[in-house]
Input
Amino acid sequence: MSVNPMAYEAQFFGFTPQTCMLRVYIAFQDYLFEMMLVVERVILKKLESFPDSKISPFQIRKSTEKFLLFMKERFDHLFSKMEQMLLQLVLNIPKNVLLPEDKVQEQYPYSKEQFQTLQSEIDQLQKQYKVEVSARQALLAELEEQKMVQAELEKTLQWFDGLENICREHGTSNLKESFTFLTQTSKKLQYILKEVEKKNKRLQKSNLHVV
Output
């Protein structure tokens, strides 16, 4: 079998010429083996007509195998010549022939150095693309975080709106005045709470004296 990879021919045919020749070889070889078995069965059947014959089936099998070996050697020799002829004259694409999909190489030829430069540019573009993808992911994460902050700010504004409405109900419309009002109210509540705690303690002491 040929050791030439014949990759260009494989691109055109869709299979390697060597694979094609191997399949043809196997098909011929299988047919040869089958024919030898048929011949052997015919000889054995004819042998049944001669009951006095001293030829045994074992001897016939040995003779068949010997003849098969001889035929296979001849077949391999002939097939080698046929394979060489087919690979050179039938399954071979001449060096000066370009396939339709490779016509662009003829129109836009480039050297090895140009190809390496182009490959370097492609690698650089791929790196830039990865950097841009990472930056885009970071921006998306930041945007999501800004949405969460905006939602919290909206809640805060709603709280301030509610606070302002409450203050208006109590006669204060200015935000500074509202905080002053809340501070004063808080102090009043703290004072009332302390007074309640004092009275509670006095009542507890009075109950103890009564007991």
